[in-house]
Protein backbone atom coordinates (compact mmCIF):
# COMPACT_ATOMS: atom_id res chain seq x y z
CA UNK A 1 0.00 0.00 0.00
CA UNK A 2 1.26 3.45 -0.81
CA UNK A 3 0.10 6.87 0.30
CA UNK A 4 0.16 9.59 -2.30
CA UNK A 5 -0.16 13.17 -1.07
CA UNK A 6 -0.95 16.40 -2.85
CA UNK A 7 0.61 19.66 -1.71
CA UNK A 8 -0.67 23.21 -2.30
CA UNK A 9 -4.09 22.16 -3.55
CA UNK A 10 -6.01 25.05 -2.00
CA UNK A 11 -5.13 28.61 -3.00
CA UNK A 12 -5.71 30.08 0.48
CA UNK A 13 -3.36 27.55 2.10
CA UNK A 14 -0.62 28.08 -0.51
CA UNK A 15 -0.91 31.77 0.36
CA UNK A 16 -0.60 31.24 4.13
CA UNK A 17 2.74 29.43 3.62
CA UNK A 18 3.90 31.87 0.91
CA UNK A 19 3.99 29.13 -1.72
CA UNK A 20 3.25 29.65 -5.41
CA UNK A 21 0.24 27.91 -6.97
CA UNK A 22 1.59 25.38 -9.48
CA UNK A 23 0.13 24.44 -12.84
CA UNK A 24 0.54 20.74 -12.03
CA UNK A 25 -0.22 19.01 -8.71
CA UNK A 26 2.67 18.88 -6.21
CA UNK A 27 3.04 15.20 -5.26
CA UNK A 28 4.92 13.37 -2.52
CA UNK A 29 4.64 9.92 -0.93
CA UNK A 30 4.39 8.51 2.57
CA UNK A 31 5.30 4.90 3.39
CA UNK A 32 2.96 2.24 4.75
CA UNK A 33 4.42 2.87 8.22
CA UNK A 34 2.90 6.38 8.29
CA UNK A 35 -0.72 5.61 9.29
CA UNK A 36 -1.61 5.41 12.97
CA UNK A 37 -2.83 1.94 13.86
CA UNK A 38 -6.04 1.53 15.87
CA UNK A 39 -6.57 4.05 18.62
CA UNK A 40 -2.88 4.74 19.21
CA UNK A 41 -2.03 8.34 20.06
CA UNK A 42 0.15 10.45 17.81
CA UNK A 43 3.55 10.96 19.44
CA UNK A 44 5.29 14.20 18.53
CA UNK A 45 8.69 13.14 17.16
CA UNK A 46 11.84 14.26 18.96
CA UNK A 47 13.27 15.89 15.82
CA UNK A 48 10.63 18.63 15.62
CA UNK A 49 9.45 21.49 17.80
CA UNK A 50 6.72 22.58 15.38
CA UNK A 51 4.51 19.75 14.13
CA UNK A 52 1.44 21.04 12.29
CA UNK A 53 -1.92 19.43 11.55
CA UNK A 54 -3.06 19.48 7.92
CA UNK A 55 -6.62 18.14 7.63
CA UNK A 56 -7.32 16.57 4.24
CA UNK A 57 -9.88 14.51 2.37
CA UNK A 58 -8.49 11.00 1.88
CA UNK A 59 -9.53 8.83 -1.08
CA UNK A 60 -9.13 5.04 -1.10
CA UNK A 61 -8.39 3.43 -4.47
CA UNK A 62 -10.54 0.34 -5.19
CA UNK A 63 -9.21 -0.81 -8.56
CA UNK A 64 -5.80 -1.20 -10.15
CA UNK A 65 -5.13 1.40 -12.81
CA UNK A 66 -2.47 3.08 -14.90
CA UNK A 67 -2.84 6.09 -17.22
CA UNK A 68 -6.42 6.57 -16.06
CA UNK A 69 -8.37 9.09 -18.09
CA UNK A 70 -9.91 11.84 -15.98
CA UNK A 71 -13.42 10.99 -17.21
CA UNK A 72 -13.03 7.41 -15.89
CA UNK A 73 -11.24 8.31 -12.63
CA UNK A 74 -14.47 8.22 -10.58
CA UNK A 75 -14.59 4.46 -11.17
CA UNK A 76 -11.36 3.99 -9.23
CA UNK A 77 -12.64 5.05 -5.80
CA UNK A 78 -15.81 4.56 -3.77
CA UNK A 79 -14.82 5.56 -0.25
CA UNK A 80 -13.44 8.69 1.34
CA UNK A 81 -12.57 9.90 4.82
CA UNK A 82 -10.68 12.68 6.56
CA UNK A 83 -7.02 12.33 7.50
CA UNK A 84 -4.18 14.43 8.84
CA UNK A 85 -0.97 15.06 6.95
CA UNK A 86 1.16 15.75 10.03
CA UNK A 87 4.09 17.93 9.04
CA UNK A 88 7.25 18.87 10.96
CA UNK A 89 7.06 22.43 9.73
CA UNK A 90 10.46 23.49 11.11
CA UNK A 91 12.21 20.60 9.38
CA UNK A 92 10.19 21.10 6.19
CA UNK A 93 11.22 24.78 6.05
CA UNK A 94 14.86 23.78 6.45
CA UNK A 95 14.61 21.15 3.68
CA UNK A 96 12.72 23.52 1.37
CA UNK A 97 15.33 26.26 1.87
CA UNK A 98 18.03 23.78 0.78
CA UNK A 99 15.98 22.56 -2.20
CA UNK A 100 15.80 19.08 -0.67
CA UNK A 101 12.86 16.59 -0.70
CA UNK A 102 10.29 16.94 2.11
CA UNK A 103 9.96 13.30 3.12
CA UNK A 104 11.79 13.49 6.46
CA UNK A 105 9.36 16.19 7.57
CA UNK A 106 6.19 14.53 6.28
CA UNK A 107 6.58 10.76 5.95
CA UNK A 108 7.64 9.80 9.48
CA UNK A 109 5.87 7.16 11.60
CA UNK A 110 2.38 8.26 12.59
CA UNK A 111 2.31 11.16 10.13
CA UNK A 112 -0.75 9.92 8.25
CA UNK A 113 -3.69 9.09 10.53
CA UNK A 114 -6.99 8.66 8.70
CA UNK A 115 -10.55 8.05 9.81
CA UNK A 116 -13.31 5.59 9.10
CA UNK A 117 -14.17 5.47 5.39
CA UNK A 118 -17.65 6.32 4.11
CA UNK A 119 -19.08 6.00 0.59
CA UNK A 120 -18.38 9.05 -1.56
CA UNK A 121 -22.14 9.44 -2.19
CA UNK A 122 -22.68 9.77 1.58
CA UNK A 123 -19.83 12.26 1.87
CA UNK A 124 -21.04 14.54 -0.92
CA UNK A 125 -23.54 17.32 -0.45
CA UNK A 126 -24.45 19.41 -3.49
CA UNK A 127 -21.60 17.83 -5.43
CA UNK A 128 -18.88 18.67 -2.91
CA UNK A 129 -17.30 17.10 0.18
CA UNK A 130 -17.30 19.44 3.16
CA UNK A 131 -14.95 18.68 6.05
CA UNK A 132 -13.58 20.24 9.21
CA UNK A 133 -11.09 19.62 11.99
CA UNK A 134 -11.62 20.36 15.68
CA UNK A 135 -8.69 20.95 18.01
CA UNK A 136 -9.76 20.64 21.63
CA UNK A 137 -13.34 21.24 20.56
CA UNK A 138 -12.74 24.37 18.46
CA UNK A 139 -12.86 24.46 14.66
CA UNK A 140 -9.33 25.08 13.31
CA UNK A 141 -9.72 24.01 9.68
CA UNK A 142 -12.73 23.94 7.42
CA UNK A 143 -12.78 23.06 3.75
CA UNK A 144 -14.73 21.85 0.76
CA UNK A 145 -13.58 19.83 -2.20
CA UNK A 146 -15.14 22.59 -4.34
CA UNK A 147 -12.12 24.76 -3.46
CA UNK A 148 -9.51 22.25 -4.63
CA UNK A 149 -7.23 23.56 -7.39
CA UNK A 150 -6.89 20.00 -8.73
CA UNK A 151 -10.05 17.97 -8.18
CA UNK A 152 -10.04 14.32 -7.13
CA UNK A 153 -10.55 12.91 -10.64
CA UNK A 154 -7.76 15.12 -12.00
CA UNK A 155 -5.40 13.99 -9.22
CA UNK A 156 -6.15 10.30 -9.87
CA UNK A 157 -5.56 10.77 -13.59
CA UNK A 158 -2.34 12.75 -13.04
CA UNK A 159 -0.69 10.44 -10.50
CA UNK A 160 -1.61 7.31 -12.48
CA UNK A 161 0.60 8.54 -15.31
CA UNK A 162 3.54 8.04 -12.94
CA UNK A 163 2.48 5.37 -10.43
CA UNK A 164 0.27 2.35 -11.00
CA UNK A 165 -2.60 2.75 -8.56
CA UNK A 166 -3.46 -0.38 -6.63
CA UNK A 167 -6.39 -1.45 -4.46
CA UNK A 168 -6.00 0.07 -0.99
CA UNK A 169 -3.70 2.91 -2.01
CA UNK A 170 -4.62 6.19 -0.33
CA UNK A 171 -4.54 9.71 -1.70
CA UNK A 172 -4.33 12.66 0.70
CA UNK A 173 -5.74 15.47 -1.41
CA UNK A 174 -4.28 18.59 0.21
CA UNK A 175 -5.19 20.88 3.07
CA UNK A 176 -7.18 24.11 3.23
CA UNK A 177 -5.99 27.10 5.23
CA UNK A 178 -5.82 27.03 9.01
CA UNK A 179 -2.87 24.66 9.53
CA UNK A 180 -1.23 25.07 12.91
CA UNK A 181 0.90 23.46 15.63
CA UNK A 182 -0.11 20.62 17.92
CA UNK A 183 1.12 19.98 21.43
CA UNK A 184 1.01 17.08 23.83
CA UNK A 185 -2.49 16.75 25.29
CA UNK A 186 -4.33 18.08 22.24
CA UNK A 187 -7.34 16.20 20.91
CA UNK A 188 -8.00 16.37 17.15
CA UNK A 189 -11.35 15.32 15.69
CA UNK A 190 -12.06 15.11 11.98
CA UNK A 191 -15.50 15.37 10.35
CA UNK A 192 -16.98 15.03 6.91
CA UNK A 193 -20.27 16.89 7.01
CA UNK A 194 -21.61 16.10 10.48
CA UNK A 195 -19.99 12.65 10.62
CA UNK A 196 -17.17 12.36 13.14
CA UNK A 197 -14.76 9.94 11.45
CA UNK A 198 -11.37 10.57 13.05
CA UNK A 199 -10.02 11.06 16.55
CA UNK A 200 -6.32 11.59 17.31
CA UNK A 201 -4.84 12.18 20.74
CA UNK A 202 -1.50 13.99 20.68
CA UNK A 203 1.21 12.88 23.12
MG1 LIG B 1 -0.77 18.33 3.20
What does this entry show, briefly?
It contains five helices and 14 strands. By secondary structure, it is of the alpha+beta class. The structure holds magnesium ion.
Describe the structure.
- The protein is about 15% helix and about 35% strand.
- With about 200 residues, the protein is an alpha+beta fold.
- The protein has a single domain, classed as Fumarylacetoacetate hydrolase, domain 2 (Alpha-Beta Complex).
- The strands form three sheets. A six-stranded mixed β-sheet has the order 2-1-11-4-5-7. Strands 8, 9, 10, 13 and 14 form a five-stranded antiparallel β-sheet that branches.
- The longest helix is centred in the middle third of the chain and has 9 residues, at about 90-95.
- Bound molecules: magnesium ion (MG).
- Magnesium ion binds near residues 7 and 174.
Query: What is the fold named in CATH at topology level?
Result: Fumarylacetoacetate hydrolase, domain 2
CATH superfamily: Fumarylacetoacetase-like, C-terminal domain
CA radius of gyration: 16 Å
- Please trace the helix and strand order, writing H or E for each element: EHEEEEEHHEHEEEHEEEE
Shape estimate: globular
- Overall structural class, as computed from helix and strand content, comes to alpha+beta
Q: Can you list the ligands bound to this structure? A: magnesium ion
Q: Any descriptors?
A:
203 residues; alpha+beta; Fumarylacetoacetate hydrolase, domain 2; six-stranded mixed sheet; five-stranded antiparallel sheet; 5 helices; 14 strands; 16% helix; binds magnesium ion
Amino acid sequence: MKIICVGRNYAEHAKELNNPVNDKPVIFLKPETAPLIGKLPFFIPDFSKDVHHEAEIVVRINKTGKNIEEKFAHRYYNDVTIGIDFTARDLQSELKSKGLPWELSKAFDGSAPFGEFIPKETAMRDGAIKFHLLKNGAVVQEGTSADMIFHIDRIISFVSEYFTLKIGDLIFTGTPKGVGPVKSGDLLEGFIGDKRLLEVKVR
